[in-house]
Sequence to fold (448 residues):
Amino acid sequence: MALHVSDLTPVPTQPVETRYRRIVTPIPAPGSIAEIERLRKVEPLSMAGLPPIVWDSAEGFLVRDPHGNQWIDLSSGIVVANAGHAHPDLVSAIRRQLDGKLLFSYAFSTKVRRELLERLVSIAPAGLNKAILFSSGTEANECALSLMRKHGLRIAPGKIGILSIESSYHGRTLSAKLAGGPPGLVDGIARESLGHWQLPLPGGPDSRGFGEDLAGRSIDPAMIAGIILEGIPGWTTTPYPAEYVQRLMRWAAQHQVLVAIDEVQSGIGRTGRMFAFEHYGIEPDLITCGKGLSSSLPLAAVIGRQAILDLAAPGEMSSTFGGNPVSAAAGLECLAVIERERLVERSAALGAELSRAIAELAARHAPYVGMHGGLGLFHSIHLKDPSSGEPLREIADKIVMNCLRRGVLMFLTGRGFFKIVPPLTIAPDALFEAIDVIGGAMNEILGA
Ligand SMILES: Cc1ncc(COP(=O)(O)O)c(C=O)c1O
Fold:
């Protein structure tokens, strides 16, 4: 399922010049090739899976290279720039923090960290009254998993198991990798040997509902400390069936199992609610978030009830750069922008229009579309071979590259789908111009 490394041979383009898009060179731009090659020389292969362009600046929902090209961004980087790239208020807040000469503090008290934590607690359900800051989503998830194990250990020795959903994504540190990813070994490690078990994708072809799935995997609730699941899975962008999640919550409460919802990607307004779990009418024990929380600098958080967050003793749960003042200032201002500009409501309203436009595209190419769905500005289109049903990995990536040459930016997934996750600030006419471009690329590649 690995992404292939994009070829650096320039492909000719038709000149594009609209209010939002400008393409004036072949892609990759001949002037960018030396830069990309030098980067590839020093960076590992794992970093080479994205379209071959050099970012020079990113502002609002536009990304520019140094060669005169400009794209409408449907990627938000990697679902980060919820408040838009380099929002002027965010830039000012970061600058104020820099000018104030406080770039680092570790766990020494700072006002800006306290303000952000209070804000985070205020956007979570009542009762989730403490929060801690980290630098990456995977770290936040690692913390949530550890807290859930500590909770389990208070109940019984051996109650340290973690349940999660197959093919989800929680990050690249070990517990996060054990919780996410497809069935099979993780770096040669069997999940069960470290107390991790997975369930099939809720609502997916292998799921028969929470109770049956659980019974099918012979999972003993006495061994389970916690469950982690994405608010809405990042790869399907389609919510789980609400009754599945509600049943899971009841089961967890019955067996003293905690539930952590990973909102790193689906949170902070992305799906038309502040957190995606709100669509299910549930209240988790722990929330992890990151990405859109700062829309910029490294910042992640775990929010939960005091009784759970205080399970770690002083000094036992912290991180050198967690809550550093510059990231905290970015997060605080980002949440203020999201509120001031009503971006959660905007994501819901624009998302409803986007759903309709995507449904039309999907209908036009129905034999090739395996799945499409989403809420808010969190959508994807999954392509399949009409006869075998297998994901059309190369074709999906070809559509992304074709769009790139027409001034619309998405990321390559290598998994037979592409995602439409623009900044929540995107202008409606820019969004639908970009959707028309995708339509043109699909016509060209799949046939009109
Ligand atoms: C749902 C989810 N959880 C966790 C992570 C990991 O976040 P980070 O890359 O900041 O460690 C990601 C990143 O893509 C994510 O989408």
